[in-house]
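ESCALATION

Customer reports they have been waiting on this structure for their group meeting. Please prioritize. Original submission:
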Amino acid sequence: MKRYAFFLGCIAPLRYPGIERSTKEVFKALGVELVDLKDTNCCPAPGVIKSFSKTTWLAAAARNLALAEKEGLDIVTVCNGCYGSLFDAAHELHENKEMLNDVNKILAEIGMRYSGGTKVKHFAEVLYNEVGVEKIKATVKRPAAYNAAAFYGCHFLKPSKLKQLDDSERPTILDDLIEAVGAKSVLRKSKARTMCCGAGGGLRSQFGETALKFTKANLEIMRNGGAEMIVDVCPFCHLQFDSGQKDSGYALPVLHLSQLYGIAMGMDAKDLGMNAHITPVKL
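Update from on-call: job pushed to the front of the queue and completed.
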């Protein structure tokens, strides 16, 4: 059985615990063991910390990478932001030995060291490339026959030259994963799938109304495309779409891909944490 250190990040456990529950259950059903990575810190978000101090950002990320390295495991995360931050930091520290040495001087102050070998993967990447669509199809107990708007977000595929997961301009990986459990991805040819949800880069916290304009533009495209729900792969996008629909005239249920899979594999909606959603989920 393949094993990964499970990096949860901030938003999933604090706002949408159903994402954690569904991811663990889905991976268990697919023969992948997720080992809780204890005592982690924030990934941390590069849009905030890196803009002030690149070394501080790398040191904070390296602490998480070192925790996984100590367990002898690579990291899997369910968040685009965490994935982007940890992946970028792991790449830089692997390629830049001088920076790795500088970071290890900081880690030494707390009795830690990082050798630069931890790999970071997105859970959708593991589902697609390691589990495979055919094995996923075989676990479906209740086909999720919904029209879904796939939302890739900003940090899942980019920088594409480094991640090499898919064509960042015309991706299909998430659409294929959605359709593996019986749903229809209704925006396969739309560039809106890879737009910003509105929350990224501190926009949500500093310029909330501007952030909502991004969100509503996406929601309009999704609704006009015939979507019955939004399927994302990032808790921050999840939060923005879920909370952004309040009093807006939109009412598209928002599901993390792991929750969609949980439904298809026969999990109860309550166990999937649907009661924590602001926009009601009626399936």
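Sent to customer with the following note: The chain has a mean pLDDT of 93.
Escalation resolved.
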